[in-house]
Amino acid sequence: MATLDNTSLHLPVENPEAEDFLPLLGTDYVELYVGNAKQAAHYYMSAWGFQPLAYAGLETGLKDRVSYVLQQDKIRLVLTSPLKPGGEINQHINSHGDGVKAIALWVDDAEKSYRETTSRGAESFLEPETFEDENGKVKLSGIHTYGETVHIFVERNEYNGPFLPGYREWNPHYRAEDTGLRYIDHMVGNVGWNEMNKWCEFYAKVMGFAQLVSFDDKDISTEYTALMSKVMSNGNGRIKFPINEPAEGRKKSQIEEYIEFYNGAGVQHMALATNNIIETVTKLRDRGVEFLTVPATYYEDVLDRVGEIDEDLAPLRELGILVDRDDEGYLLQIFTKPILDRPTMFIEIIQRKGAKSFGKGNFKALFESIEREQASRGTL
Ligand SMILES: [Fe+2]
């Protein structure tokens, strides 16, 4: 449990505006509902370097589902598939394809977290419940957020097992070398037309978050497409949830494309932090992860824009890594192509060198790159 404490490396942006009725210690895990958890687990291990952690399925007494838990430093992923027709997981996959069901948040008091949020208007997903096995107990509760996504509150200070009660250690022969991913920097939600403010208000009112930054369609537009975005953050800055909505442009916004293929609001991307983006992206690319590319011209004037950086430009150009600067430092970032067949979820790799922002200076180059992908899919 102590391994989840990421204060020292997270450079959290303290957000004094936020209220502290819901203290959050970090992201506990992210659960994806997927069509074939066994094969998805292999992908996240072999391509992304996650390590096997825990398993629950027929062998542990479950009848209708199976879950594999993977970990890389402080990032935990749970991949869950149904074993029988019907039910909530099948319905979720049928509607959305593979996607994020739960963003679980690590708390000291799952009961209080539930009470504070539901009393402020959150819709209940899971009433507080204690789960127990020979390794101790965990209390969970949960609320709904945008689309069919939920937040689970995890209170685990009396638990010493590999993950949660009911899971056993998963120790396969196969292990892949990690890729240097450290923690979840932020998780982005895409919501429908005119729904961004509603969901930002939800995070403000129900969870005590405050707005960190806001981007309108003038910040985030190209000649053809646009979107709007606001970043909500909790008080200690460990949890950051940007919320995007589509905006009118001459062609179809990437957010609209997402909403169509995801069949509603959902998680668009997870941003995973590394301490060495060149090494991480080199490994990921060698193992088959596909990234968006920007034109070579991006690198011609990037240093004029961002000033001096520690890295050589050549490997950044070769890998397609983007650079941006704010008042406090700079950041390096890159985005994968969608990691699923539906053009829905992707992953961002980010290395912060002082900067606490989100790469605004890269939006235009990035969205032009996404438009080229949309055009190739016939969805621009
Ligand atoms: Fe991001």
UniProtKB/TrEMBL annotation:
InterPro entries: 4OHPhenylPyrv_dOase, 4OHPhenylPyrv_dOase_C, 4OHPhenylPyrv_dOase_N, Glyas_Bleomycin-R_OHBP_Dase, Glyas_Fos-R_dOase_dom, VOC_core. SUPFAM superfamilies: Glyoxalase/Bleomycin resistance protein/Dihydroxybiphenyl dioxygenase. It comes from the Bacteria. It is an enzyme of class 1 (oxidoreductase). Its cofactor is Fe cation. GO terms for molecular function: 4-hydroxyphenylpyruvate dioxygenase activity; metal ion binding. Its EC number is 1.13.11.27. Residues 26-156, 183-337 form the VOC domain. One of its GO terms (biological process) is L-tyrosine catabolic process. PROSITE patterns: VOC. Binds 1 Fe cation per subunit. Keywords: Dioxygenase, Iron, Metal-binding, Oxidoreductase, Repeat. Pfam families: Glyoxalase. Transmembrane segments: none annotated. Fe cation binds at residues 186, 269, 348. Belongs to the 4HPPD family. This is 4-hydroxyphenylpyruvate dioxygenase. It comes from Lentiprolixibacter aurantiacus.
